[in-house]
Amino acid sequence: MQGIFITFEGIEGCGKTSQAHLLSQHLEKQGYKIVMTREPGGTPISEAIREVLLSTDFMKMHPHTEVLLYLASRAQHITEVITPALQDGKIVISDRFDDSTFVYQCYVRGIDLKTVEAMNHFATGGVSPHTTFVLDVDPVEGLQRAKSRNQRHARKEDRLEREAIEFHQRVREGYLKRAREYPKRIYVIKSDRDKEAVHGEIREIVEGIVEKGKNV
Ligand SMILES: Nc1ncnc2c1ncn2[C@@H]1O[C@H](COP(=O)(O)OP(=O)(O)O)[C@@H](O)[C@H]1O
Ligand SMILES: [Mg+2]
C-alpha cells in the first residue's frame, strides 16, 4: 500500500477534530490527496452504528456489545474507505481509530487485550496507522472544552461524555501507557496550548514523514 495512514487520539475535548482538520487543510494546500474520516463512522453503515454507540438511550450497553459494535463499524470503514484510499496513494487522516478501542475497551473497561487484538485484526485485515498523535490534556480542561463546543452547536452530551471524571482520567492514562508501548508510532502532543502551537508541532512531524515516504 502506497498511502500514509495518520490517526488522532485522546480524551474528549483534547482537540482531535480540530487538529485533524488543520492538518488536512495544510496538506491539501501542499497538493497532497487527503481523505479525512472518523471513527466510529466514516461510511453510511458505520455512521448508523455510531448513532447507536453514542446514544444516551443505551446507557446499559454491555461492554462486549460495545466492542463488537466498534469493530463492526471499523470493518466497513476499512473496506469501503481506508484501504482503497491507501491503495490510491492518498494520505488518510482519521479522527480516532483502533487505539481508542484498546484504551477504552481494554485498559479502561477491562476486556482482555489479546482477545480484542485478534478481533481487531479480523476487522482491519491488518491495516494499521503509520503515525498516531495522542493529544494530551487534563480531563477537567478537555471536558470543559467539549461542553462549550456542545453548547455552541446546540448538541447534547453523548453517552461517553456523561461518564465521570475518573473514567476520563483513566482514559488519559491508558493513552499514555499505549504511547509508551508504541514509542515509534505514537507521538504524545501537549494540547493545553493554543491550537496553532499544537498544529505547528504536528505539521513538522508529518512533513518529516511525508518527505521520507517520497524518497523510498
Ligand atoms: N488547543 C486548544 N485550546 C483551546 N480550545 C481548543 C483547543 N483545541 C480545540 N479547542 C476547542 O475545544 C473544543 C473541543 O475540540 P475538538 O477538536 O472538538 O476536540 P475532540 O474532537 O478531541 O473532542 C472545540 O470547541 C475546539 O474549538
Ligand atoms: Mg471530535
What is the topological layout?
Elements: E1 4-9, H1 16-29, E2 34-38, H2 44-54, H3 63-87, E3 91-95, H4 98-108, H5 113-124, E4 131-136, H6 139-152, H7 165-181, E5 186-190, H8 195-215
Helix pairs in contact: 1-8, 2-3, 3-5, 4-5, 4-7
This protein binds adenosine-5'-diphosphate and magnesium ion.
Look at the structure and give the mean pLDDT. Answer: 95
Q: What is the string of SSEs from the N terminus onward?
A: EHEHHEHHEHHEH
Radius of gyration, in angstroms, nearest whole number: 17 Å
Helix content: 55-70%
CATH architecture, please? Answer: 3-Layer(aba) Sandwich
Shape: globular
Number of domains: 1
How much strand? 5-15%
Query: Sheet with the most strands?
Result: 5 strands, parallel
Structural class comes to alpha/beta
The parts where pLDDT drops under 50 for at least 5 residues are none
Task: Tell me the total number of β-strands.
Answer: 5
* Distinct helical segment count: 8
- Would you identify the CATH H-level superfamily? P-loop containing nucleotide triphosphate hydrolases
Oligomer: single chain
Strand order of the largest sheet: 2-3-1-4-5
Question: What name does the CATH topology carry?
Answer: Rossmann fold
Bound small molecules, which ones? adenosine-5'-diphosphate, magnesium ion
CATH class: Alpha Beta
End-to-end distance: 13 Å
